[in-house]
Design brief:
mainly beta, seven-stranded mixed beta sheet, four-stranded antiparallel beta sheet
């Protein structure tokens, strides 16, 4: 399995970015695709996830209402739309895959840097 995250960059507070995670190497039916982030000097934290079959989403409280995860089955790609960005959203963002019903994220992408300036 390969996961390729992209779309990071520098944005001002209040702005938006959309991250993409292109997945390959298997079918993802029965899997969840998650987004995580890790700020400098901090532990990695869960951002949100989407189940591949149902499209059901779940978000961390810190991003709920600002971030939206979606998927394109035909392209095997998951998106993280980030709106109303805050400086505290600055981090390296990673996408990952977990077989359901566990939340054992076993495949990880390389990460993409998001920097939000105040």
């Amino acid at each position: 399995v390969q996961l390729q995250a992209s779309g990071g960059g520098l944005v001002q507070a209040g702005g938006s970015l959309r991250l993409s995670c292109a997945a390959s190497g298997r079918t993802f039916s029965g899997y969840a695709m998650g987004w995580f982030r890790q700020a400098a000097g901090k532990e990695r934290e869960f951002v949100g996830e989407i189940t591949w079959n149902s499209g059901r989403t779940y978000y961390a409280d810190s991003v709920k209402g600002r971030f939206t995860i979606s998927r394109d089955n035909a392209k095997n790609t998951v998106y993280l739309q980030m709106n109303t960005l805050k400086p505290e959203d600055t981090a390296v963002y990673y996408c990952a895959v977990s077989p359901l019903p566990t939340r054992n994220y076993i495949y990880w992408g390389q990460g993409t840097q998001v920097t939000v300036s105040s």
